[in-house]
Amino acid sequence: MPAEYTLTKEAHAPLPGIAVRAGNYVYCSGSVGMTKDGQMVEGTDRTRQILGNLEEVLKGSGMTLGNVVKANVYLSKLSQDFDTFNEVWKEAMPEPKPARTCIGVAELPAGGTDVEIEFVAYDG
Hints:
The protein has about 120 residues and is an alpha+beta fold. The chain contains two helices and six strands. The protein has a six-stranded mixed β-sheet.
């Protein structure tokens, strides 16, 4: 079965949200806390915006946050921002929580963001 690509313009600008379905798995490209009109959200709302963006990408593939089985989180200030990020994560992600890796990085490429998240979802 060939891979199926999904683009949604409901996620952040300047690029559409991208997902690739391979069998029962959907791989979502990393998302940042940008609105559809290209504005970077500030503070803890940035993580909420990212999760909302990824939720829209998943919808385009017929899935929800409940289908997420793995998340990679990139934080440019890991020791400083992890606790705040984690509080939003605990509130927003449904149970059971997916497996997650949090990675400290020197910088992220999108418009001054300090957090980026990518998902793998399963529909089995």
